[in-house]
Design goal:
The structure is a homodimer. Chain A is built from 4 helices and 9 strands, in the order αβαββαβαβββββ. Chain A is of the alpha/beta class. Chain A folds into 2 domains: 1-78, 2,3-Dihydroxybiphenyl 1,2-Dioxygenase, domain 1 (Roll), CATH 3.10.180; 83-160, Roll (2,3-Dihydroxybiphenyl 1,2-Dioxygenase, domain 1). Chain A is globular and about 40 Å long. At the A-B interface, α1, β1, β2, α3 and β4 of A face α1, β1, β2, α3 and β4 of B. β4 of chain A pairs antiparallel with β1 of chain B, so a sheet runs across the interface.
Amino acid sequence: MTLLMSVGLGSVSAMEQRLSLVTLGVTDLARAKAFYEALGWQPHPGDDDVVFFQAGGFVLALWGRGELAEDSSVTDSGGWGGITLAQNVRSPAEVDSVLSQAHAAGARIGRSGAETFWGGYSGVFVDPDGHPWEIAHNPFWTITEDGRTLLATNQGQPAP
Amino acid sequence: MTLLMSVGLGSVSAMEQRLSLVTLGVTDLARAKAFYEALGWQPHPGDDDVVFFQAGGFVLALWGRGELAEDSSVTDSGGWGGITLAQNVRSPAEVDSVLSQAHAAGARIGRSGAETFWGGYSGVFVDPDGHPWEIAHNPFWTITEDGRTLLATNQGQPAP
């Protein structure tokens, strides 16, 4: 009852501050699925025309780009549209390792791992459908053991 | 030591199956920030040219679209580029409520809340920079009390 009440209050006061799912539009679902599988990702079983990956408490989906555009009530401009994904990892060496794996799996390397102006280390790969992923080590953020990314240092201080 | 070893092994065997950050490219950072604040989201303090929101164990960022394109090593096609965000909520009524809030905050409603072909209920709003958000109630997935979205029913069964 308490939960129902709090949910009810939440639904009228504000949109919860969280994200559930990101869907990547793809031109060849089998190719896209194979790319992420080559990175070691395991799809959720049971779907044929959409692929879901459980990514921590979050879901990444692959779906036909035309269907996604229609479902999203937008016009497809055909290229990159202003959204970039990122995975934060635990060391500069892990940045290089992930970029190397992505390249081996068929990604274009947009920029190799290097120190950044904000004091971290990152690089970018672009997946076969043109979706960029920044792979970053940010010493001012925290990655928990269960893979959550927090805007604070390991000491619990907010990032500068 | 065990943790370091497991991280080391992870870095050579596979990219971890998780996502840390999604960055939305925007044309007017103050406007974009105000839109998400009008939805009740609270930005992380401390940055001027980028806005971060802690969204569960995940981060949503707002940054200048031109800077993001350059940083992501991609060419901007100027419109939607094949990525749609989603938030899953706990009831059809909450879908309608969030869409109503988004409309009041200045979003375009791409499609109103309605039953979907996959057995759920959803609608879409498009933020002032053209980024679509599907707001969905999916009875086959689980939202935990702390806001994680899991590809299974409340009974722990995989989604069909």
